[in-house]
Design a protein that fits this description.
Strand content: 5-15%
Number of domains: 1
Largest sheet: 2 strands, antiparallel
Number of strands: 2
Oligomer: single chain
Distance between the termini: 37 Å
Helix content: 40-55%
Order of helices and strands: HHHHEEH
Strand order of the largest sheet: 1-2
Shape: flat
């Protein structure tokens, strides 16, 4: 996995202004160290890409907070309700989030990654 391959597979991260190569490479190095290639086997690259995308989304949110004069890295949960005047919107995200997923539940990429991580290397089932 490298920056070019990642950007081809996840075209939503193709904007080099928004996602500079240096930042992508930084997080690619981090997630490469996090994952065990032997355990992930043929799914190693997709695991890397999903974890990388997850970290990039969070890093971009932190940068946007900083540019807006807010504290970057401040934590917040998933918004499930919002009201403006008489209009209200609620979302039930419980069906897509993993119980005990914590940090990984903050992005759709993290949710996909965690789902795969929980299956990878689990081994066969004997009845």
């Amino acid at each position: 996995m490298n920056v070019i391959t990642f950007r081809q597979q996840f075209a939503e991260f193709a904007d080099v202004q928004k996602y500079p190569d240096a930042v992508v490479n930084f997080w690619l190095d981090v997630v490469t160290r996090m994952l065990n290639a032997d355990r992930w086997s043929d799914l190693f690259d997709i695991g890397l890409a999903l974890a990388l995308a997850h970290h990039l989304v969070l890093a971009t949110k932190n940068e946007a907070s900083s540019l807006a004069g807010k504290s970057p890295g401040a934590t917040q949960g998933v918004v499930t309700s919002k009201s403006v005047d008489t209009v209200s919107v609620n979302y039930d995200v419980s069906q897509v989030m993993h119980e005990g997923g914590g940090f990984w539940n903050l992005t759709s990429y993290g949710i996909q990654f965690l789902g795969m991580a929980r299956m990878v290397g689990a081994g066969g089932v004997q009845l």
